[in-house]
Amino acid sequence: MTTPHTGPSGPDTAAVTGLLLAAGGGRRLGGRPKALLTHRGRPLVEHAVEALRAGGCARVHVVLGARAEEVRARALLPDCVLLDNPAWERGMGTSLRAGLDSLAGTGARAALVSLVDQPGIGPAAVARVLGAYTSPRSLVSAAYDGVRGHPVLFGAAHWAGIAATATGDRGARAYLKEHAHRLTLVECGDVAEAYDIDTEADLAHLE
Q1: Which residue, among 68, 75, 66, has the nearest Cα to 42 in the 3D structure?
Q2: If you placed Cys at 188, which of 64, 89, 142, 143 could pair as Cys (CB 3.0 to 4.6 Å)?
Q3: 173 Cβ partners below 8 Å, 6+ apart?
Q4: pTM for the complete prediction?
Q5: Using one digit for the tens of pLDDT, what is the confidence trace for 151-165?
């Protein structure tokens, strides 16, 4: 189903924590960690955190991996919870599991997940997805011309199921496919661009 939500709609959104997956090593970029790629004079990880915060996520957890200590040293990430994923080379699924695990006991009732290598997705898309949150059973995804993309919001009721199926670089793909009938799609194609920074050619998107 599709919803026209345009932004956070109530106090319950304070229970949603932003979860940024920023562990990738940039294998197809000559081994340059994506978190440290420069965009508008700052590391990409800073822009991604800023998008989550400006979109309405007061709390942000960041999963680091490749050259994590260098990311900690170079990026300004105040008030973020930074965690290392020692298994980052095994794929995004390990980072997603680590991030969800980090939310246990924090009072978070949902996680709004974004990827560090999508600088075309900013606060407006985050706000729309966040605005569709209603309860810990919420399952929400941004859509681009009707095609599911990021960010994605996982209510806490889904975390165990996602962790059990998140493998390799597929992340939550299998879980979302299985639960497509419960997924709310929020169109964001008019406010964001869902490209990834994966290859040398993609670096043209950075400024």
Answers
A1: 75
A2: 142
A3: none
A4: 0.92
A5: 999 999 999 999 999
